[in-house]
Request: fold
Amino acid sequence: MKRRLVVAAAALALATPALAALPQVHARAYLVEDGQTGQVLARYHERARVPIASLTKLMTVLLTVERTKPSDVVTVAPGAASVGESSIELRPGERLTVRELLEGALIQSANDAADALAYYVGRGSEARFVAMMNTRARQLGLRDTHYTRPDGLDAPGHVSSARDVTKLARLLMRHALVRSIVRRQSATIAGGRVLHTWNDLLATFPGVFGVKTGHTSAAGWNEVASLDRRGVFVYGTILGSPDRTTRNADLSALLRWALSRYRRIPVLRAGHVYAKVEVGYGQAPVDLVPARGLIRPVRIDQPLLERVVAMAAVALPVLRGERLGEIRVYQGPRLVARQPLVAGRTVKRPGALGRAAFYGGRTLDHMWGWLP
Reply:
């Protein structure tokens, strides 16, 4: 009969090098998170309710992708064409696709593109769309957020926080269309309009692939960045930097610091014995090894925990490579690796004579044990 044995290994401490100090940042607030687990790596006033400028467009875009098709055609409302400031010079009555307006709002941070989407999704009413924004914010648990405009221009009561902006960016980046747009530094849309990004880190920081920048006089210089480098996935948000250069330098420093918290290591070693299984008939236990080794990026300041589920004993024959268990490696709540455990060698079932010799020998051992 096959029996199962669960073994939870002790936490495995990593060899931790000296950790770099958190950089000095000149901003009202910031937040850095692990992009896979949501664990906070660094924070400063992350719940402060402050103006966020064009980071507002993250919600405008989210409602749009949830309620429209990229191929939908939008007729530009007069109110959208007249919004001013950052603009792609839309004209009243002009027709563009939702995708083109999303590109205008995300790549060039155009206020008229964002407002055109707001009028379209709000069925001709910007006020109705703003109400939808606030309803969606409550549904998502963005407790520090209140919107009064779809574009992010300064307005009383229009606020959010680094925490809420980061959460919203993570949700929005689940949409493939958004991911494909925010990584682009330029695009050409209707009317021969050439769009250029405000996100300097797309060109200067390898691995950055989004998400959004923003600036107004009240909000300062803001950005939420997404970073994926060699499997390390990080979000960094900075709000209220004094100028564009400082924002770029401070956010880059935070992202470099975040990368320093991770290291690629062999979390499962090929050929390493993680458990043994009994096979009977006096044979040595069979080693259980991973089906293959795995290298993963892990945080250097948290231990790993191995959890093994394997057979305690199996009936022969056993074939090399036969699956007899499983190993999972965790770091905090995150499942870092999962692999079958397989037999390291083949063990054949003894023939009739071999089995008879085994049982006979065992009987003699028992009999000798009865003697005084």
About this structure: The two ends are 35 Å apart (CA to CA). Residues 354-361, 363-371 have pLDDT under 50 and may be disordered. The chain is about 30% helix and 30% strand. The longest strand covers residues 3-12.
